[in-house]
Write a structure and sequence with these properties.
The protein has eight helices and no strands. Helices cover about 65% and strands about 0% of the residues. Pfam families: GerE. GO terms for molecular function: DNA binding. This is ATP-dependent transcriptional regulator. It comes from Pseudomonas jessenii.
C-alpha cells in the first residue's frame, strides 16, 4: 500500500502528541491503531514494527519519574529525536538524495560505492516505512529529520 508510510507516520505523530499531553492511554491507542492498519493493509511487519517499538519506548520513558537524572535529549528538549531511527551515514545519504543527487553522485560525494548507497537507501526506506525514495524524503521532512 503506497500510502502506508504516511498512515504510519501520522499515527506515530498522533501518539507523540498524546504522550506530550500526558494522555498515555490515547498514545498507546494510536500505536495499536497504526499496527492494526499496517497489518490490515498487508504491509510487511519489518516496515512498521521498529518505529512502533521506538515510540512505545518513548511512551514508557514518559511514565518514569520526572526527577530521573538520565533524561534523554528528547525529554529535556521537548522534541522527539526521530533521528534515532537512522544512522548518521543514512541521514547524510538521505540529505544528498533529497537534494536530487543520483546514487553515483552520492557515492562520489561520500566516498562510498554505489552499492553501499543503495543499501543505505533500502535501510532508510525500511526504517521510515517507505516504498519509494520520494516517500522516504517526504516522511523524513514530516518528522523533522530533513529541513
Amino acid at each position: 500500500d503506497c500510502c502506508a508510510p504516511f498512515v504510519l507516520n501520522a499515527y506515530l505523530l498522533l501518539s507523540e502528541i498524546a504522550a506530550r499531553s500526558h494522555d498515555l492511554e490515547k498514545a498507546r491507542w494510536h500505536l495499536h491503531e497504526a499496527e492494526r492498519r499496517m497489518h490490515w493493509g498487508k504491509v510487511h511487519a519489518a516496515c512498521y514494527q521498529g518505529p512502533i517499538a521506538r515510540q512505545q519506548a518513548r511512551i514508557a520513558a514518559r511514565e518514569q519519574p520526572a526527577n530521573d537524572d538520565k533524561a534523554s535529549p528528547a525529554r529535556t528538549s521537548g522534541v522527539p529525536d526521530y533521528q534515532d531511527d537512522l544512522t548518521p551515514r543514512e541521514v547524510s545519504v538521505l540529505k544528498l538524495l533529497a537534494e536530487g543527487m543520483s546514487v553515483r553522485e552520492v557515492g562520489s560525494r561520500l566516498f562510498i560505492s554505489e552499492n553501499t548507497v543503495k543499501t543505505h537507501a533500502k535501510n532508510i526506506n525500511v526504517k521510515l516505512g517507505a516504498c519509494r525514495r520520494t516517500q522516504a524524503i517526504n516522511s523524513a521532512k514530516a518528522m523533522g529529520i530533513l529541513a
